[in-house]
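Review form for a predicted model. The reviewer records the input and the model, then writes brief findings.
Reviewer: anonymous (R2)
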Amino acid sequence: MDNKHCCYCGRAFSHHVLPTIDHLIPQSKGGAKTWANKRYCCRACNTQKKALMPHDFLVYLQGEYDRAGKAATARNLLEKIGHTKQVVQYVNEAGPAVFRTEADYLWFKRRYLK
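Model under review:
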């Protein structure tokens, strides 16, 4: 995803949708401070994701989709799920590059890449 769209929902940035910088792997969970671990996202997605790992955020979004009562809400969630799956794939392939230490990456690997 480029720096003109939110990496989670895909919305284009404008004066109504302002970009923020998200640490894909939260620093509180061993995420690196490098650009390999950062992406632009809208404030709404950054607030919704909080300090979740991308994999946990994806599970959260899928649960929201299962509970969605309106078709428009479900469509928006499907779009967000698709973009978040791309983020998860990037994190899985990036390996230690998005983590502060090798130990943090090994914890992630044991927990999420079974």
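Findings: The chain has one domain: 19-112.
Further findings: Residues 91 and 98 are 7 Å apart (CA to CA).
Recommendation: see findings above.
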